[in-house]
Amino acid sequence: MIDYQNILSSITSNCVSIKDKGKIATYIPELANINASKFGIYLVDTHKNSFHSGDAQELFSIQSISKVLTLAQALGMVGEAIWKRVDVEPSGDPFNHLSLLEFEDGIPRNPLINAGALVIADILVSNLKNPKKDFLQYVRRLANDETINYDSTVAASEKKTGFKNYAAANLLKSYSNLENDVETVLDFYFHQCSLAMTCKQLTQAFYLFMNHGKCQQGITHLTIGQVKRINALMLTCGFYDEAGEFAFKVGLPGKSGVGGGIVAVLPGKYCIATWSPGLNKKGNSKLGMKALEEFTTATEQSIF
Ligand code: GLN
After folding, report:
1. What percent of the chain has pLDDT over 70?
2. pTM over 0.70, yes/no
3. Cα dihedral 115, 101, 238, 84 sign
4. Among 193, 279, 289, residue to substitute to test ligand 1 (most atoms within 8 Å of Cβ)
5. How far apart are CA 270 and CA 190, in angstroms?
């Protein structure tokens, strides 16, 4: 039996002792106020045993991690038709680059870069009765936690400085790949990104991706085929132009956010989440990546 607790504790003490923790994202002003020395890690396995260390039960802004949850809800509701509007190839570009969108006639490379996530947001806005409320309810149900909520201060802060996302949404609209108003889609998108969650809540919400589409309560939300598609996208596109590096070093499907969170799954075994707000040059948590690399090295388990 692998001693997960011991491994998590020693990774935490290694990581907190590292001086260069990366740089906090400041382009969303509200995120700049976070304490850079926070570090948390949480793991839940298929038998619902959980292990954690550090600040694993503190709320932080999940940002782009939310793109996996909107994709799951859209895929569950609309099915394969969504691939007509968004592709499934890695972009090799930063999360907010727009150049490929012009070259490829308004079809985003994948749903985990901003342009692709905006198309998914548009699909949810079109298909949900009360989009923000219904998406929040979906996340709460997946995680079995009614306390999860948006952080409206973070959403408002991103709205003020979200010029690139306005540009992306307008480009998509110009190619007729947004059905709804730019403002409405962006309002939904800024809210999904503002979700405040802990490492623990993230592992609960992502439990279905390691458990063949069933959440911790045993309810089936996605088919096995849909989970395959989402995990494949996390592996190939979850870390933007660093997806190769994450697969190379960690060897798990996962997703990062500029709030410093990362969540990853080993299908059939466990779901793990880390939080350390400092980012590397590619916008992924510096210590989170290091922690997960140490974790899969120590446990000698990965999808490979
Ligand atoms: N809300 C952020 C943005 O659109 C999400 C980016 C991220 O976490 N990589 O810029």
Report:
1. 100
2. yes
3. positive
4. 193
5. 29
b (16+ CB within 10 A) / e for 253-285: bbbbbbbbbbbbbbbebbbbbbbbbbbbebbbb
Pocket probe mutation, ligand 1, options 26, 63, 66, 279, max atoms within 8 Å of Cβ: 63
Question: Is 67 labeled as catalytic in the residue annotation?
Answer: yes
Residue-wise pLDDT tens digits, 167-178: 999 999 999 999
Torsion of CA 142, 148, 149, 154, to 10 degrees: -100
Helix (H) or strand (E) holding 270: strand 270-275
Ligand 1: atom nearest CA of 158 is 1
Total residues belonging to the chain: 304
- Alpha-carbon span 256 to 62, nearest angstrom: 8
Q: Return the ∠ at Cα 135 (arms to 185 and 282), rounded to 5°.
A: 65
